[in-house]
Amino acid sequence: MMLKCAVAGVPFGGAKGGVTCDPTKMSINELERLTRRYTYMILPLLGPEKDIPAPDVNTNEQTMAWIMDTYSMLAGYTVPGVVTGKPFELGGSKGRGYATGRGVAYVTSEILQRLNIPLKGATVAVQGFGKVGSNTARFLHQEGCKIVGVTDLSGGIFNEDGIDVPSLIKHTNNENYISGFDGGEFAADYRKANEKLIRSKVDILIPSALENQITEENAPGINANVIVEGANGPITNSADMILSKKGKTVVPDIVANAGGVIVSYFEWVQDVQAYLWTEDQVNQRLKQVITEAFLKVWNIAEKYETDMRHAAYMEAVRKIVEVTRLRGIFP
Amino acid sequence: MMLKCAVAGVPFGGAKGGVTCDPTKMSINELERLTRRYTYMILPLLGPEKDIPAPDVNTNEQTMAWIMDTYSMLAGYTVPGVVTGKPFELGGSKGRGYATGRGVAYVTSEILQRLNIPLKGATVAVQGFGKVGSNTARFLHQEGCKIVGVTDLSGGIFNEDGIDVPSLIKHTNNENYISGFDGGEFAADYRKANEKLIRSKVDILIPSALENQITEENAPGINANVIVEGANGPITNSADMILSKKGKTVVPDIVANAGGVIVSYFEWVQDVQAYLWTEDQVNQRLKQVITEAFLKVWNIAEKYETDMRHAAYMEAVRKIVEVTRLRGIFP
Amino acid sequence: MMLKCAVAGVPFGGAKGGVTCDPTKMSINELERLTRRYTYMILPLLGPEKDIPAPDVNTNEQTMAWIMDTYSMLAGYTVPGVVTGKPFELGGSKGRGYATGRGVAYVTSEILQRLNIPLKGATVAVQGFGKVGSNTARFLHQEGCKIVGVTDLSGGIFNEDGIDVPSLIKHTNNENYISGFDGGEFAADYRKANEKLIRSKVDILIPSALENQITEENAPGINANVIVEGANGPITNSADMILSKKGKTVVPDIVANAGGVIVSYFEWVQDVQAYLWTEDQVNQRLKQVITEAFLKVWNIAEKYETDMRHAAYMEAVRKIVEVTRLRGIFP
Amino acid sequence: MMLKCAVAGVPFGGAKGGVTCDPTKMSINELERLTRRYTYMILPLLGPEKDIPAPDVNTNEQTMAWIMDTYSMLAGYTVPGVVTGKPFELGGSKGRGYATGRGVAYVTSEILQRLNIPLKGATVAVQGFGKVGSNTARFLHQEGCKIVGVTDLSGGIFNEDGIDVPSLIKHTNNENYISGFDGGEFAADYRKANEKLIRSKVDILIPSALENQITEENAPGINANVIVEGANGPITNSADMILSKKGKTVVPDIVANAGGVIVSYFEWVQDVQAYLWTEDQVNQRLKQVITEAFLKVWNIAEKYETDMRHAAYMEAVRKIVEVTRLRGIFP
Amino acid sequence: MMLKCAVAGVPFGGAKGGVTCDPTKMSINELERLTRRYTYMILPLLGPEKDIPAPDVNTNEQTMAWIMDTYSMLAGYTVPGVVTGKPFELGGSKGRGYATGRGVAYVTSEILQRLNIPLKGATVAVQGFGKVGSNTARFLHQEGCKIVGVTDLSGGIFNEDGIDVPSLIKHTNNENYISGFDGGEFAADYRKANEKLIRSKVDILIPSALENQITEENAPGINANVIVEGANGPITNSADMILSKKGKTVVPDIVANAGGVIVSYFEWVQDVQAYLWTEDQVNQRLKQVITEAFLKVWNIAEKYETDMRHAAYMEAVRKIVEVTRLRGIFP
Amino acid sequence: MMLKCAVAGVPFGGAKGGVTCDPTKMSINELERLTRRYTYMILPLLGPEKDIPAPDVNTNEQTMAWIMDTYSMLAGYTVPGVVTGKPFELGGSKGRGYATGRGVAYVTSEILQRLNIPLKGATVAVQGFGKVGSNTARFLHQEGCKIVGVTDLSGGIFNEDGIDVPSLIKHTNNENYISGFDGGEFAADYRKANEKLIRSKVDILIPSALENQITEENAPGINANVIVEGANGPITNSADMILSKKGKTVVPDIVANAGGVIVSYFEWVQDVQAYLWTEDQVNQRLKQVITEAFLKVWNIAEKYETDMRHAAYMEAVRKIVEVTRLRGIFP
User: Can you give the pTM of this predicted structure?
Assistant: First the structure.
């Protein structure tokens, strides 16, 4: 997270914390009391200028609302900036829900431009159709890309003429899964569907499901020339080397899916400034920030003749070292 | 005030406080010392994140300057955001003086659009020619409305061809009252003038003087199809029901005159951000915020087939309940 | 500094502090420890809402970084707004390096417009080619002015067809001094070169080197009709009176070179808002603020039939007195 | 309370606050949550240096524990000094439970000495046998006084040879009321018993039950020469004048029952010093403080030839005026 | 530590923290900088009302001085109460060096009294002659006990007529170890010496060296009727059961060696009160506090017919549970 | 002051501050407002843990009351410990008025004991009869010393049989000066009286008036064997050397008149502890502290074979160096 922020120029670091419990076995009341007590116990570390929690697996907008309320009551006044990912009514940001997908789409657009592949009409395969995958597909579809394959836990949909993404999203909103959608050829075995998808003859492959999906086994069979990491760590190290040798262009997660943390930062800025942005402003500034990060990394890769993943780490480490050097060690 | 803020989406609540005294019998020095001591005594409740006073009857920009100075000196540094309605030189906002009138004009423009009445050429009667009434008249006149009647404590001016509002304002700047202005027919008895005005055959009636001006007695005689509440509570409950039955459209105070508190909020935002907005920016953002509030209420009224006053309360209560539910009760 | 801020509408005051030492004889480690201890000792006076240091002679971006780090570590979280002039990586502002020169150019453009002298093709002599002089020349050259003379400690370059300023800047970036540049006639004796420059037959003379360069001796020989003070106090009092009698127009330092402190203020605003501006935004807002200050002073000079220096002081004192009167004396 | 503290030299003032509710109808959980929320809401007024609650009717040690815990958790560390009357385990004081009674006994001993009545063998009638009355009787019995009459809501016990107070206390600890005790003549009608008690032929009468017990009706029949007010306001104004004319010596409540607040102050001191006193130290210092207060008032009464009640008010007002004069009015 | 404090009535809890490093390989300068940085990093947890470090293995008075200075400089004023065990010149307590030994001696005196063994002339064997053992021996010798055996890493000294403890201390001050002292029979093999010592025919055995010295192997051979734990945990669980069955009286560490933390608490109290105690006051109050703790535990053991170790745990847990119950769980 | 505190073991430093004005020409109202504004301006440096003002020439108890009130109101609660020398009603200390004189008397008693001169019957000459001189004379007279000479600005009183000090104090309370007192031979020329006094054949000479009274001119004629400096710096450097050679014993000001600052410290301690001491407690603890300081210095003088002045400086510097060394330099 710290590296991702450093590349994007977001003035945040990285830390995690949690409580060992099974929230599915707790009442809403127990969850609230647990969250408030936990907030109290880590209080000296929290604050809009210190550590700013955001939701992750098993926590959500409501959890953030409780943390924010507890911190605020202890402070004596409302402090929306102490968390991000909170409900819009309590100072949350417009556009945060689909920010990662939107960022992946922006980055995809940029990489195609660099490689002289026209965005309009480009063919795309998307692995995973959750928050990231579906929104990525939606925005690329809006830009004129042809989404020819999509998979999720229920299987895969393939359609060489391009899937009607808005209809598919409407379908999954109701049915949770893509299975049952009749806008293409359906493959019910999700492992086979995934393997088929990864080998699709497309311009762009966007793994946006889980870690370690592209391995040394299936990497040699990849046809796409561009892989954009929508998920965190979808390509294993050894697969990465295979792709590199084959001359594939990989946009690493640290750049490609930074949209989420960038809009978290925007939410905090809006809270600090006590003035909310419109959805358009959020999206436009997200585009500006993620594009700039992409270009910085692209240029380093060009200059040092390396791949984008190494370039991204170089930039992240350079930034952190530079700041540490400038500030010095206190006391 | 809390309901007004909830409808407008302004993150403020509502509270009042004061000192029992007769400021007209006190020297400026006594007023200053009284204000400073009072500020000191309510200090634990004040602050840019807690309670932010603004001037009301018998207090003014100078009072706010003293409160701000006292709070700031006690804090150890300048805190402009602790009050609104302060002089521009100390961090006050451009455009605050006429904000309520401007807001009434924006809302009038919106309601006409919804009712398919062209703004240009619409006839208007304005009750009261103080800060709210005169500025409402000024802005509507600028937009091409015909202001055919105006009243104040000195009587009423009526002119079917439209009053020359800029000249009338120049006149009242010098003479305090509208009497003596020769741009129309003058009626010296202000009660009769008022009754005449309320029954005018106009498109829009804008009561912007005192409470309880439209009652069950004069309500049945109202000809205007649109009444926009520039003042707080100018229509009695029973009059409201009469107007409702007659199919008149009333834009309630909670929406119509929210311009004042919206720009108070803008002043606070500018102080929090340490960067002042231009007059244009203030006016444009006021338009955006009050129009959005109007539309929200309009849509609720449409959806639930009720009048705008009930719709406004529905929205205000919904917002407050939602926020309270999300935050929960601490501890 | 306080007067300069008052004219420009920047909400800062003025103060200086320092340590008696010879930094050229100290190691980087000793400088760091000295700076940190000094910061600690003046701590109760520092803070983004109290006193905000900026670099001056013998201190630089690194010094500001140490002060910022010390203050932040003592506060318990990063407080970029406690200093300005810090490195961009730590929250410094784009465009700060050349802000004073850019401001001088904006002001020059404004004064010419008032005097009906076309900016394009106007002839300019610039004394000093450091941070202020070189950037002033650069921006005026971009606007189409003809820079016909430039001096520094190594001598002077004169070229009636206009010096190629970008080339000269490239030269001085490498050689530190202008001597050796072959884009004009070179005069090696810097005193003679200076006197020649001051007497140049140009439209505009911009002294941007040291104090007291235009004296009662050389003032009578000045040919330029407009003198813009890039440096602080380049004209002696008696020279000022001579120029005044000769009908020359002098734009005083308090207005002309305010660009530096204006962008210092912008840096602080960006830190308070936790959101950095683009270089374009900085420049455009600098233009807006310094032009407004120029116009305010110009109009006062017109209204009270005085020169711009007196007008500037009138405005500065008026502002400070007004604010003090409004706030009152506490307790 | 403020006057009582002023006479005793205790650096406290006086204030009351509460919640309108019926605690007998609330669960312990509801009481805890109500207390914590109330504490939160008055938080800006609370603190060991600001306002220090103590229990009164319907609140007790447990309520104080909750207030203390809530305040402490909000402060971030344990702050025992924010309340007095808390459990000993949480920083409460030894000897606080019987402090008022002990103080009444000390004051009785002092007044007898002044009037040359030997303490040993003096006869005493005590109205009320709650916390104050029973402890007063206990300590006077220890000093050799003969307690010849005691009343409570269940009636009265009279024994000219002196009641065995320790046995009576043991009895009431078990039975709550004095009825059923066989160490004297029992009168079951508590009104008649009270009237009999008030008219007893004793040296000292100690009303320590409710307000307005000695009225213009029964005052003329009082035989005791000394009345010590254990309760607050047991003598009506008119009764007071009758007693004064009859030459009776009344020790007013403001002096006589100050023992409670004095030990509250001691509890706070122990918390401030983070070191608890032994029971002996508490009692010895209570004696010193209440005796000093008594003597101050006695001497003023002598000097100004007035009764002790007036003398006590004179001293209290003098102290408050003097302190206010010395400090002045801020700002 | 928490249990020990609970038994002694000291309002402290228990926590540990440290840095993984080898201080023997670091310069004094490195140690200072490491200590200061560590202090900075745990700052939010430190403070005289929060967590109060004290020295342990590998840290000493100097370390405490650095922590105190760092905390104080960050606070802006001197805060001696943030650590205990600091040098006397910086607010440390008299008598802290030998407090544990003194406490062991007090407790030994109390247990003998309970068992009707005269202190004067009682025979004692002391295992270990470091800070605890030597001071225990010193104070018991002062009270007239006969110290007949002492061991350390260099071996053991045995003398049935009683060792001259002051001379032995003088010896170890010079030579570090007891070997070489000629005031008794010397046994050079420290294992054998220890076994001999543990089986000595004495009234009291005081293991004050390391953990797990009395085991199921040597426990059956113990002749002393009283064992007082000067060290932490010198008796294993199984040995404890053997001694219990044999009817030996063990005073557990939690009571016996609480003198150290009690005087740490006194040091903190002196700092909070800003007034230092004399050595006599420290010793007298130590005696009072540790004796009271002993008696509380003794009485519980009597009442519940258990050994002192169980009684001590019962009291500690009772105290903590009671306080937790009274305060409740927040929020 | 810093050295004086170091010798006495008082944890204070030394600093001075003031306002350039002539208080004799200002109204009480102007003095109050000046004091409050001055307090506000040095606020970041003030506080019971930072800098604690005390009255000096031209300021008094009332000034301290204003400073205390201003600081307290700015803090939000009463902070008596921010000043010393305030009125008793606001938390001042008993016994502060005569503390310096009392301290001089204690020190005189100690030095006589060391020199084997009996205190009872010792003859004393006191220069100056202000707060220090008169109280010194009073306490020594109480101890049985014979005060044979006293001077002030009005002249000198000499009486070989011992002056009746209580009568003389009663006289000066009424008449301000000693002239007119008939309990001895009066010398009206104060210069001559002083010279006579300095040369008196007495055991002890106590200069307690102004600086530089004992010079190289009159030093050779001094007969007293012991000189105790009640004033600050009454002996010039050269006179000091003469006295040293003559074998006279001088108790330096840094030790002799430390009573004032010691009781200032006691006042602060009482405020920190929120519990006032009795007059007896103050005097007894003063005796203990000043005697200990005297003994420390006496022993150093013995050990290093030097005079007490050098010994006092040695101790003061040792203490400060030791503390600085232990704490180290931060950051």
Answer: 0.92
